[in-house]
Specification:
The structure is a homodimer. Chain A is of the alpha+beta class and about 160 residues long. The first copy, chain A, contains 7 helices and 6 strands, in the order ααβαααββββαβα. Chain A has a 3-stranded antiparallel β-sheet. The first copy, chain A, has a 3-stranded mixed β-sheet with strand order 5-4-6. In chain A, a hairpin with a 2-residue loop joins strand 2 and strand 3. The longest helix of chain A has 14 residues. At the A-B interface, helix 6 and strand 6 of A face helix 6 and strand 6 of B. The first copy, chain A, binds a DNA duplex (25 and 25 nucleotides) through helix 2 and helix 5.
DNA sequence: CTACTTGCAAATCATTTGCAGATGA
DNA sequence: TCATCTGCAAATGATTTGCAAGTAG
């Protein structure tokens, strides 16, 4: 590799917690045990989750009263504000996913097992821009859900095509 | 015009109310004053609406107690089941739009004024099918929201580009 | 007639908020 | 120190449900 490593601010490598700390500081907010704990749990693995699932993971802390339901909700909202999480609504329920350090993507949603399968399409982005241009609309983001039945559930539902 | 009008079952011309009546009958349910009234109001014009907006339109009936909040909700759900309405969630609130007799489309969503601008794209449908094929996923539908700022609001927000 | 419907009031359910005590910078 | 946080309990707000009385077929 040639030595073309030029000036490059490595802000992307900031850990979610550091990034959050930075956000909090900029707002005069504090880095507390609870917020630390929640961020750590949330970014410990890549997955879609809702408040209940997160609470299930933190049940010990909740049981020990070192953490509470309202704090979970408050912190999730802050994480969205901070741009660390993306929030979406799925069947009346708020579902979150990593936004920070994670590439833009859309979802296939299996309405049988509720699985969310991620995919990315540049063509889709071009399509959004194109439509927007026609309407003189400024695109800030998009969300595509393709609903249907995932491979696994299809196999389960149609063991044989006898009755068709 | 040449006389090529061949056999053509005109089931599409069924009014929303008739279509609903048909659905109700198939379920052993009844065509009541309330359901009739709601369907009529809902299909009196093409627009997106939520339960509150619908209730505002029917406020006289509600005031006269010939109709109630629970009945509105119950009937809206039946209309979705019947395939007459499509339901989506927008900011925690259920929003409905005509599905029966109305072409498939997607939306530009202005996050400033909450306007929903409809558009249709065949390319998008092809894209969904293509992605689905790769994942061995059976597509039953899709929903694309392009969020951003509509032309009107952009003009209002940036009267001049002075500060840029 | 009689099962399906309705309006009412009360229940849900996820999420939010007021407040007094606890705590991070 | 002292403004920001937190847990608690209670409030919210949209939507749903149990039930006795009303009504469609």
């Amino acid at each position: 590799m040639p030595g073309d490593f030029s000036l490059r601010t490595v802000q992307v490598t900031l850990s979610p917690l550091d990034r959050f700390a930075q956000f909090l500081q900029s707002r005069g907010k504090r880095v507390t045990q609870q917020r630390r704990q929640i961020v750590e749990q949330v970014f410990s693995h890549h997955d879609h989750f809702d408040a209940d699932e997160l609470m299930a993971h933190l049940r010990d802390e909740l049981a020990a009263r070192r953490l509470s339901r309202p704090t979970i909700y408050r912190t999730l909202n802050e994480l969205v504000e901070a741009g660390l999480l993306r929030k979406m609504t799925l069947g009346g329920r708020s579902v979150f996913e990593h936004e920070y350090g994670y590439p833009q993507h859309d979802h296939l949603y299996c309405q049988v097992c509720n699985a969310l399968i991620e995919f990315h399409s540049q063509a889709l982005e071009r399509l959004c821009d194109q439509v927007a241009r026609q309407e003189d609309f400024e695109v800030l983001g998009h969300r595509l859900f393709v609903t249907g039945i995932c491979a696994k559930c299809r196999r389960r539902q149609k063991p044989s095509r006898a009755s068709d």
